[in-house]
Amino acid sequence: MQAVERSFDRSLGHHIRAAGFAAGVLLASAAMPALADETCMSPFMPKITGQEDYVYVWTLGVEGMGDGSDKLVTVDVRPGSETYGKVIANASVGGRNEAHHGGFTDDRRYFWTSGLDTSKIFIFDIHTDPASPRLERTIDDFVEATGGVVGPHGAYALPGRMLMSGLSNAEDEGGRTALVEYTNDGKFLAAHWMPTAEEPRGAEIEAVADGYGYDQRVLPRKNVMLTSSFTGKSNYMMDFGAMLQDEEAMKRFGQTVVLWDFHARQPRKVFHVPGAPLEIRWAWGPKHNYAFTTTALTSKIWLIYEDTDGEWKAKAVADIGNPSDIPLPVDISLSADDTTLFVDTFMDGKVRVFDVSDPHAPKQIHEQQIGRQVNMVSQSWDGERVYFTTSLLANWDKKGADNDQFIKGYDWDGRQLHHRFTIDFNAENLGRPHIMRFGAASLYTN
User: Fold this and answer.
1) Is 183 in a helix, a strand, or coil?
2) Strand ranges, E, within 298-424
3) Rg of the chain, C-alpha, whole Å
4) DSSP character for 125?
5) Which of 2, 168, 231, 366 has the fewest CB atoms lying closer than 10 Å?
């Protein structure tokens, strides 16, 4: 552990320099509306300049469908291309692992993806041939190396490092878990366990500290990181209908957001955010010290913000649809100008768009049916294109005719979504499409 801490101390200057670089990127982007990256990426990554060329889709394998394996699917989204809106490549990992989330390294040369069931991490080479990524290596000792963390989830780029959130643990497969830190070349560095009531790790606890994890996001200029909370393996691998009928299982969902000292990896405050807060999105404005999250079970938008006295607080600021219907908000995307929040709700298959120019009082401005179920949403930096995928978890997706599995691309004019293309992953024998990331060949040729 001391070696890890010494390594971290040596890299602290690099973190600070990178934070300055990230701030420069953000300021530059405000003056360059041609930037077309996704809005919700790590600030430590370079931006894509111009139109994205590809959308990479991390896809769950389905037994009897194609090769039955999880795979990274590449979709061509180059305007005017003969293969626009079509699959042009896929790279299989040779098994089913409950493919879920992933993210690029800080140089965008590699794409880390994870499997919630097997706890494997798959690292794809993006830069050699951006149109056809290939599997570079697999990390298969995640549980052992981390001291019992299970279910690697989001992969978040730090300078020279990847920060993975866990969802569970090997002891009881519940929600107690940790953040896990690797070097970019896959060397394990440290596990930072989430604070609990029994082990608060110095954090101020607002009401409860459950130790659960899900997403992690950093605001470098304020030296703060937020983590959210979901549920453990005993729940996320259970049939959705059976889980809803299991009273004990329904008690095993996260109800916290944790504010961390980013450089020290030290939890500072545990907010009570009941109802499984999932994705976290920091505002981009240089004076916008706030982030949004949404709660899956209570269907609310929450704001985590710094008040005028420098105190960080959390409060619910809007309902998403009718919370009593449990529409199940699952993913969000905040526009680069911090004015528009896209919210996907899985159960009704809709996207709702909110005006969040006043973050304390969001107002819904648009609602549209995307499919019979919908999960992830990715928005271009220039705000002109939005993409949607469908799969939540293999055992939670709808069944029969309601089991939509697609990626859809739309144009957004500020008021309405205009459909551009649909790829039916069932018809293409590809599986269940989950998370998306944008790629651009120009990143590796200039």
Assistant:
1) strand
2) 300-306, 312-319, 329-334, 340-345, 350-355, 363-369, 377-379, 385-389, 406-412, 417-424
3) 20
4) E
5) 2
Place of tokens 């993806």: 113
> Do 354 and 366 touch, CB atoms closer than 8 A?
no
pLDDT at 13 over 90: no
Quote the Cα angle for 210-213-216, to 5°. Answer: 135
- Strand 204-205 with 266-272, pairing: parallel
Q: Report, as an integer, the average pLDDT of 156-174.
A: 98
Which tokens go with 298?
A: 């209570």
CA angle centred on 193, ends 191 and 197, rounded to 5°: 170
Residue 28 has pLDDT above 70, yes or no: no
Q: Which tokens belong to 223?
A: 């030296």
CA dist list (Å): 91 to 136, 155, 171, 409, 430: 11, 19, 33, 22, 11
CA atoms within 13 A on the CB side of 416: 3
Q: How many domains, the chain?
A: 1
Task: Report the C-alpha gap between 101 and 434 in whole angstroms.
Answer: 7
CB atoms within 10 A of CB 205: 17
User: d(Cα 129, Cα 127) in Å, to the nearest integer?
Assistant: 6
Q: What is the mean pLDDT of the chain?
A: 92
Contact status, residue 380 vs residue 374, Cβ threshold 8 Å:
no
pLDDT in tens, 386-397: 999 999 999 999
**CATH no. for residue 7?**
2.130.10.10
For residues 327 and 296, what is the distance between their CA atoms, to the nearest angstrom?
8
Domain enclosing residue 76, as ranges:
2-444
Task: List the beta bridge partners of residue 372.
Answer: none
Asked if pLDDT for residue 41 goes beyond 80, the answer is yes
pTM of the predicted protein model: 0.92
Q: Name the band, by pLDDT with cuts 50, 70 and 90, for residue 23.
A: very low
Q: How confident is the model at residue 36 (pLDDT cuts 50, 70, 90)?
A: low
The three-class DSSP label of residue 5 is helix
| pLDDT-derived band at 443, boundaries 50, 70, 90 | confident
